[in-house]
Amino acid sequence: MSVYRNRLLTPGPVELHPKALEALSRPQLHHRTDEARALFQAAREGLRQAWNTEGEVLLLTGSGTLAMEALVLNLFAPGERVWVPVHGKFSERWAEIAESLGLEVVRQDLEWGRVVRPEMVEELSGPFHGALLTHSESSTGALNDVRTLAQTFKSRFPNALVVADMVTSLLISPVALEAWGIDAAASGSQKGTMCPPGLGYAALSPRALERLKPRGYYMNLAKERKAQAEGESAWTPAINLVAAVAGVLGEVLPGLEEHLRLKARQTELLYRAGESVGLKPVPEVKSPATTCFYLPEGFRYAQVKEAFARRGATIIGGQGILKGKIFRISLMGYSDIYDAYAVAELMKDALQWLG
What we know:
With 355 residues, the protein is of the alpha/beta class.
């Protein structure tokens, strides 16, 4: 028997909220019932509030990536031109999705870990139909100022749509759609909403709803919007997860500002602890979602992973060009400030054990 409690310290999936566990323990609910419809509407309304939008949020059975692809599929036509700054694995995913759907992608590559600057927008040559931005790049731990980027982009290309990956910023960092100049955004259940994987969220501002160009069959957002207005979905939903999301949002939203302050403070503590033992942070601007460090000099990721595992903790390594170069830990899931102190000490102990 281990003397350590198991800790899931990855940026998704995450430690589950008690309200999610409670919802998932209930008997199976049929999705075409009044009870299910009420939960569906409660989850949609909670997500709409979390995103600070007057538009709508559609629940899709899948992942955050599904929501990203659905937004590109339904907001842009093949051949349309989009700007995609690439500075990590998930911003790169935007480019790959757009290319696979036949869009003309103007890709701007940055060093991974860096953030996108407004002056990069000023250097663009139009026309553009849209921009695909990443708010919290969890492969590097970097946080982009998507508000300034969106507003700068629209000042130059006012008819374009700005779509944001907010997969690891929703309920972790302040977010907004219309007030920030964001037309649509994606997220998923296994991140800030502290539920299991299985739901993608597609947030659409009123402007985006007016500009829908529905395509596809399963990911047709016009069809989904019509069904979800009645508290159902076009296809069989992961209704147990919908119930979990509704429960978590009902608990978190009344104290959202305090919750966001907690996430920022947790990450600050982890970075301070890592730097105190000589670790070098990866991101230029730190996201509250994920703490990313370069590996200690002379050690491989497998060794660092094992050091954490011996203390009951599951962490994750780098992706893409950062694979084998960094490690990542996250308290995005259900946790409090004392969990952050505990994980900070755990990290110090693990690195000292490497030694």
